[in-house]
Fold these 2 entries.
Entry 1:
Amino acid sequence: MIHLLFTVIGCEMILIVLLLFKTPLRKLVIMGLDRVKRGRGPVMVKTVAGTVFLVLVSSVYSIMNIQERSVEGGIVNPTDQVLMAKHLLEASIMGFSLFLAWMTDRLHHYIRELRLLRKSMEAVKKQSRGFDDAKNGASEEAKAMEEELTSLKAKVKKLESECETKKKDVKAAEANAEALRKQSEGFLLEYDRLLEDNQNLREQLQSLDRGLSYSDSKKNP
């Protein structure tokens, strides 16, 4: 069992070294650990770790029993010494093995978190670059729109001045039309007066003609 535990410790130390240094094998180790943590892998790992922990507790309990027997007997038995040394070595190796397994799991977890953070940072950088490009494009578009707005303002001012001129012309035309209307009304009144005078003159002439005709008829009976 001790040889198996030393083999496990050696494998765990190799895994830790591969995880610590950035080498081509690091990706393979990470991929392997990712697969182990999928499906039933975590359950199996927890089962093995629990079994090792129980064996560790059993070894510690055996060490305590041997110490109690030595204290009670007052004499140290060579067999108990050998068993105690064996259990102590097994407990130390199993404890160290569990510690290395925990270190491997934490290193793998932190490396994955670091990779995710780097990916998110790269995505944020790309997004910020896109925002900067869009901002530059928007600034150029804003400049073009500002120039167009300035041109439109100039056109509006020109149209306003033309509109004011047209308004003045319309007011002048309205004033002229009003003057012509008043003048035409005066002409119409004068025309009516002249018609009335003409009618009166005609009536007077007709009365004179009738008077002359009547006087001539009397002279020539």
Entry 2:
Amino acid sequence: MKINYISLLPVFILSSVGIVNAQKDTTRLKQEVEVTKAYQPSISDAFKINDIPQIKEEKTDKPVFEYSISSEPVFSTFSVKPVQAATMVGEPKTELGKGLLKLGIGNYLTPYGELFYNAIPGNKSNFGMHFKHLSSHGKIKLVNDDKVDAPFSDNAAEIFGKRFYRNSTLTVTGFFDRKGLQYYGYTGDKLTDAEKEAIIPTWQDKQVFSKGGVDFCLKSNTGASASSDMKYDLGFNFQYFGAKTGQRENLGKMQVSLNKNLDQFEGLLESSLTFYYADKIANRVTPASNQKKQILLMVNPAIVFTGDNALLQIGAKTYTMIDDDEDARIVVTPNVKAEWSPVENILTLYAHAGGDFGHNVYSKIAAENPFAAPDHDIRNTEYQYILSGGIRGKFSSKTNYRAGVSYSGIKDMHFYYAQGFDYYSEESSFRNLQNTLDVVYDDLKLLKLTGEFFHAASENLSFHLEGNYYSYEMETLAQPWHMPEFDVDLSLIYKTDGPLCFTLDAYVIGKRQALFVDSWSSMILPGFTETIYPMDPVFDLNASVEYQYNRKLGFFLQLNNFAFQHYETWSGYANQGFNVLAGVNFSF
């Protein structure tokens, strides 16, 4: 629904609170390269990887409808998904040092370095930092057997400080990320070097994405006040994002989360106000403009009733989008959740009815697909409804399970495709092949089935299996381009009683379809043809071994894609084959 006015009451609620918190970018500081736990320092917010996984609570926000292949241009097999420690297997708390230094080297001319440092926490404050470098300078063989240069780099820095007060904690975090790559891929048959230079405008062009910003968060301490007092989580985030091709983004977000126990129920309020500005983009609404200005207001009130073995939440989600190029738009969805545990800690049934709104800012799309056309301006995605339910629980103290189903109605979902262009005239003709990806939109219904199983055979051995099946009902498109039919992830961790630790991680991604559109223009008959390229299923197998020589010194070896699979991340962009990373850990 479009409107020409907005309510100022939620804005007043937000502006009356001094400091508010931004939703963290989960892509900002993913810890990659290997799963390890050797002498990790006590670094708060440093994303330490634990050894034994745990089945997480079912998320009831928007469905996991994202491109399943890692968006790393190459070397993505080092992105082993971290898993959290299971609650049923405890580990004694050990005295840790202040820092951890990790250094490594791999084939494809791959240097790696990472530093964690955390000052010994005091009663009133804490301080820490994290720095990382990972790069690769080798060649990759495309699916058409063309061997091309495909360098990339990933640099990150983060510094944080915490101040502890009687009833709250203030956290301030500064961060900077820089990711570099080249447009090394293309769709279709193998071309000569001369042909690539002649018809691909961005062939081997360099791209750099830089992001820097600051987070402020003021959060009430758990148990610091009476249960009837207001709990709060307030914060503010600002980030600047820039691309080497000239695009710029400024994004500021304020957030307020309030929680108060009343006589018969608990009251919740989540609200945020986002200011977004982008420059040097291809404005999809006003082609004459190369800018985008938006304000997004979110207000989500709810009440929660809790019983001995049941929970009921009744609420709503409201989004108000104000765009300089369009009329104001309001989206309202329910937010109803229910849980019932007929057998406590053994069996829980859950259900959810809701919706969501995906704000597709420039930095979000660049992280999702770095090979998208750099001047992109993507429509926002509306999750009109999300209906989900399932069961979760434990077969025993060492075995967890979860099974669920969701059905969603999604509007304006974007899908990536490649294209070429031919021009013919009496005087001349030329060919243009794009190796950056454009988008096409469609509305769809998505059915998703999910299963998850975890078993801790002992304190030394754990097994985790998760799988998803997807069924897409498209409104106009023939296929959900680049989206898989299913994905399966398997993790196995074994810690010996000695200094060795072994990890095996395997994942399978079902077949996908990629679209290539070839257009031509002539004085007689303009038109286009569509070609569908099948993308084979992915089977990627990774393993690591770690040897802890003493309390301070350890060694690691990571083997990636040792199933020797040759597959594409995006249409025209293949990943590295078998690769190795070896290195040393030093704690201090």
